[in-house]
Design goal:
It is built from 16 helices and 12 strands. It is α/β, with parallel strands linked by helices. The chain has 2 domains: 190 residues, MutS, DNA mismatch repair protein, Chain A, domain 3, CATH 1.10.1420; 215 residues, Rossmann fold, CATH 3.40.50. Strand 7, helix 13 and strand 8 form a beta-alpha-beta unit. The protein is elongated, with a radius of gyration of 29 Å. The termini are far apart.
């Protein structure tokens, strides 16, 4: 089953970011090759929902981190190779016989661009293939390496040692190839074994991504999570924080079927949205098999993640904020009705309607969510009175982010605690900012 998410979730978590802003992708997007960068973006688009596959990826990246792997190829080689392979016009094939005196004289006056591209392309691919063979043989097929158990790696190594690709391993890249041999390699690489060559390049781009992610994990002190089977329904994250915030404070959370609904309260500015984004990003990256900003993490894989943190009014269809919330809930309900186990974050549930309706709706929806014990729900709200009713359910975990008053000044710990807050400091903040005093100013009164 494929892992599902949507644009709203990716925007809430700043996965790709908007123009001119940093994104979660940008934290890792430091690949050596252009196609490595494209593959990285594709991995972000498609998280995983299979524990075994996730752990296999984690094991590979972790190994590359431990051995301090570096990408051994020059990025210029791939530019030359890709430009060469992009020209699949059979009319540009080199003739096996030596060019005529007339063609040779013509090339002396105006060198043939296709011929130069072929020479550079064959040379670049020869060097790439030789370096890949050395890398796999000397670094990836060691006994302690997880790559030795990887079918993809062993298949690539077999290709490298099979004619005609293996013939390139014997060439001296410092010497110019004879015309007949150049023509034969061109036919092999660009036409007869084109898909095989592209398969080799794709494997290298994947290594580029993994090595880059491993380096980021080292530099940022990220940890590798452990994926558990879906049936365990457990999430344990210790010391997780927002990877884009400086001096971010860490939090810890444990979720099980006996506490699969987290009911989160806290005053404005107490850090609820940041906490939920941090948790969402951590879960998103973990399902990619990537390192996370945390101290330790174990999680049962889920089938998808849906967040509602920065939900805009849909004025294009005449929808108010409340109706936009309702449509969002309907989409999540449809996902749940298919039997999928999903991770749901809803910040300030029903903020778009009056207090009475918000109270009733919060209780009704949270109660319905609580019955879906295979999924996980994190719901924040200002309707703290709803929490007293929901205490009757046995699988809701009540958490809050506290506000400590220092005189008339609120201070925020940003650290999760058990219970339901009764913090209401909106008027205090308004008074502290002197807004009412400004409005008492008689200038401008009619």
């Amino acid at each position: 089953m494929l892992f599902t998410t949507d644009k709203q979730t990716q925007e809430d978590l700043n996965i790709y970011g908007k123009q001119g802003t940093d994104s979660i992708l940008s934290l890792f997007n430091r690949t050596s090759t252009v196609n490595g960068s494209r593959l990285l973006e594709e991995l972000f688009q498609y998280p995983l929902s299979d524990a075994e596959v996730i752990n296999a990826r984690i094991e590979k990246i972790s190994y590359l981190k431990n051995v301090k792997a570096r990408f051994p190829f020059s990025s210029e080689l791939f530019d030359q190779a890709e430009q060469y392979l992009a020209n699949n016009d059979e009319r540009t094939k080199l003739e096996t016989e030596k060019p005529s005196l007339e063609k040779m004289l013509t090339n002396l006056v105006a060198p043939n661009a296709d011929y130069k591209q072929i020479v550079n392309g064959v040379s670049a691919l020869t060097e790439i293939i030789q370096q890949l063979h050395t890398l796999i043989k000397d670094s990836l097929l060691l006994t302690e390496s997880p790559f030795i158990r990887d079918e993809g790696t062993t298949k690539i190594f077999a290709i490298l040692n099979t004619v005609p690709i293996s013939l390139l391993l014997k060439e001296n890249t410092k010497h110019k190839l004879p015309h007949e041999k150049l023509a034969a390699y061109d036919l092999t690489l660009r036409f007869q074994y084109r898909e095989t060559v592209q398969q080799l390049l794709k494997y290298i781009y994947q290594l580029d991504v993994y090595i880059t992610v491993a380096r980021v994990a080292t530099e940022r002190n990220f940890v590798f999570p452990k994926a558990l089977p879906k049936e365990e329904h457990v999430i344990k994250i210790e010391g997780f924080y927002h990877p884009q915030l400086k001096n971010a404070l860490a939090n810890t959370i444990h979720i099980s079927p006996d506490s699969n609904v987290v009911f989160l309260t806290g005053a404005n500015m107490a850090g609820k949205s940041t906490f939920m984004k941090s948790l969402g990003i951590t879960m998103y990256l973990a399902h990619m098999g990537f390192p996370v900003a945390a101290g330790r993490m174990q999680f049962s894989v889920l089938d998808g993640i849906f967040t509602t943190i920065n939900l805009p009014d849909n004025l294009g269809i005449g929808a108010s904020h409340f109706f936009a919330e309702v449509l969002r809930l309907k989409k999540i309900a449809k996902e749940l009705s298919t039997g999928r186990n999903i991770f749901v974050i809803f910040d300030e549930l029903f903020r778009g309607t009056n207090v009475k309706d918000a109270h009733e709706a919060t209780i009704a929806i949270t109660t319905a969510f609580a019955k879906k014990r295979s999924s996980v729900f994190v719901i924040s709200t200002h309707i703290i009175e709803a929490g007293e009713v929901l205490k009757e359910l046995d699988n809701i975990s009540f958490k809050y982010l506290p506000t400590r008053m220092k005189g008339v000044t609120p201070e925020y710990t940003y650290t999760l605690e058990d219970g339901i807050t009764d913090d209401r400091h909106g008027m205090i903040i308004i008074k502290n900012e002197g807004i009412l005093e400004l409005l008492k100013n008689k200038k401008g009164d009619n």
